[in-house]
Each structure stands twice: as structure tokens, then as C-alpha cells.
Amino acid sequence: MDKKRISIALAIAAVLILLFANVPCSNLFGLLGMLLFSGFASWEFYGLLEKGGATPSKRWGTICGLLFIASTWFHMLERISSNQLWSIFLLLLIATFFRALQQSDLKKGIENITTTLLGLIYIPLFWSFLVRLFLSGDLSKPGWAAFYVILCMKMSDSGGYFFGTRFGKHKLAPTISPKKSWEGLFGGVVFCGIVNIVWMLLSKGHLNSAIPLSPLHAIILSVLFPIVGTLGDLVESVFKRVVDAKDSNTMVYGLGGILDMIDSILFAAPMLYIYVTLFLK
């Protein structure tokens, strides 16, 4: 095992836990954090596409994503309505289409549209559901529902890494990510289950002040999180494999870039949002 990688991951986790546990979710530091993660991840994703020879509007796509994340934040604070939020998103999409008219090469114009829109959907749209969960409870309290997602996914990743490196023999997706194994996925379920047991005991059956969590739903989510998170990892791995890149960036030793750190969360947050909407409210 890479002890340095584990030490860095634990240090980052400690800082995030302290921030989540002590800062009210409506604090502007929360918005800043959401913008930073979304912005860096979008920039890295567009960079990956450029390595593969694509020509997305890197700066435009990143700025549009930041505007949508900020709009989602203020929507959750009831500063703008749902209709206004989606009107902003539609305007950004339409403007992205119109930007293709500037291209003299029509083929490049279509490629510019599709790759830029792909980045807008993959990063800011999916990330916006973590913002929704973050602000879904008492605004004077920490963003416990978002913290729950991040904790489940990071512990699931740790379980996958631990079980995979020690016991991994049966490849999960050898053509996409040779290091992932079924044993690693099982380890993710085990670690995520432990998180849910502890969470149930400490929270007395709640994700936050607005969302209840029964033992049955906790068990179901303990299985869903590792599965969805693994699929999220594999989606990013597809992009990296196409452009022959090991990581989206080399910002953090052993962990890669911001996109590498949140790739599973990008799919886990919408999954939990859908699950809460359908079954917990």
C-alpha cells in the first residue's frame, strides 16, 4: 500500500470534516468551496478532452458551470425561483449553441458544441445536486446530507482500495480500469455499511434535520453508493483511457486532480437526491 497516499487522503479528510462540522451550510465559505471544486474539475475535464484532440470552449464552459452552481446555491436559499434557475441554465445552453456560429469550420463548430455541453452536464449539472443536498436542511446547521454523501463515497473508495489491493483477483472492468476488482467493490459495500451503521447511531435515524433515514434505507444505500460510485469512477476512466492519461491532473500526490477526487461523487449526489425525492420524503 502507498502509505504517503493514505496519509495525504487522511489529512484532507480531517480538514473537510472540521469544516463540515463547524461551518453553517449557508455560510459563503460553503459557496466558495462548491465553486472551487466545480471550477477546477470542469477545467481539468476540458483539458482531458483537449488532450484527445477535441476543441471545447474551455473557458466558456467553466464560467457557465460556475454561474449555474452559484444560481443553484441562491435558488436553495430562496433568492431565485426554480423557474428562474432553469431559465438561466437554458440561456447558457442556448448561448453555447450560438457560439458555434463563430466557427468558420462547421465540423469544428459541432465538435465545440458537443464537447462543451458534455462538460456542462458532466460536472456542474451533476455537482449541483450536491449543492442541493448541502442546503437541504436547517441553514444554520452544517450541510450534513452532503457530508453523508462524501463520507460514504470516500469510505467506499477506501474500502475498495483496501480490499482490492489485498484480495483483488477478479477484474471488474479490465478494458477500462484493470485495477478495479469485484473484491474491491465488495470492500466498498462493507466500508459504506460501517459508515451507515455509525451514522444511524449518531444521527438517530436522520440524514439532516429535514430527511429521515431508516435502517432499511441505510442498508440499501450502503449497496447503491459503492455501485454508483464505481460506475462514476469508470466513466472518468473511459475519458482518461481515450486520451491516454493516468490522472485528470497531478495536483495531489496519489489522488490526482480534483476531478479524480470527485468523479464518484458526481454520480452519487444525483443518485441520493433522486432516492430522497422518491423514497424519503
Summarize, please.
The protein is mostly helical. The chain has helices at 3-22, 28-51, 58-76, 82-98, 106-134, 144-167, 182-203, 215-242, 258-262, 265-280; strands spanning 171-173, 177-181, 206-208, 211-212.
Q: Which percent range fits the helix content? A: over 70%
Q: How much is the average pLDDT?
A: 89
Low-confidence stretches: none
Number of helices: 10
What's the number of extended β-strand segments? 4
End-to-end C-alpha gap? 42 Å
Task: Characterize the structure shown.
With 281 residues, the protein is mostly helical. It folds into two domains: 1-23 and 143-281, no CATH class; 27-134, no CATH class. 73% of the residues lie in helices and 5% in strands. A hairpin with a 3-residue loop joins strand 1 and strand 2. Helix 2 (28-51) runs antiparallel to helix 3. The mean pLDDT is 89.
Present the secondary structure layout.
Elements: H1 3-22, H2 28-51, H3 58-76, H4 82-98, H5 106-134, H6 144-167, E1 171-173, E2 177-181, H7 182-203, E3 206-208, E4 211-212, H8 215-242, H9 258-262, H10 265-280
Helix pairs in contact: 2-3, 2-5, 3-4, 3-5, 5-6, 5-10, 6-7, 6-8, 6-10, 7-8, 8-10
Keywords:
single chain, 281 residues, mainly alpha, 2 domains, two-stranded antiparallel ribbon, two-stranded antiparallel sheet, 10 helices, 73% helix, globular
